[in-house]
Amino acid sequence: MDTDxxxxxxxxxxxxxxxxxxxxxxxxxxxxxxxxxxxxxxTRQGQTLEVDLVSGTILWEFLNIHDVRDIVDAVDDEGxxxxxxxxxxxxxxxxDFLFNEGxx
Length: 104
Description:
- The protein is mostly beta strands.
- Helices cover 0% and strands 27% of the residues.
């Protein structure tokens, strides 16, 4: 194995969407158990992505947005919401109880 080899998975030539992977402070990447997908936490952006490691496609995105109307005086509707940091993310694999009515 060539330890100097680098393979860019995302974004790639077919990516139609892009996410900012630049952070001066934090983030987290976790590989799925089959090593075909990765969960990526972009801390400062308050964003989590799941990326297919074969195609480089973003499978889904989570934005950690919360309604803060009860704790701030917003000037407009957009000010009613805040994006909170996402410091880490993990796959939930082996639950010893029924999760989501046993469908997952």
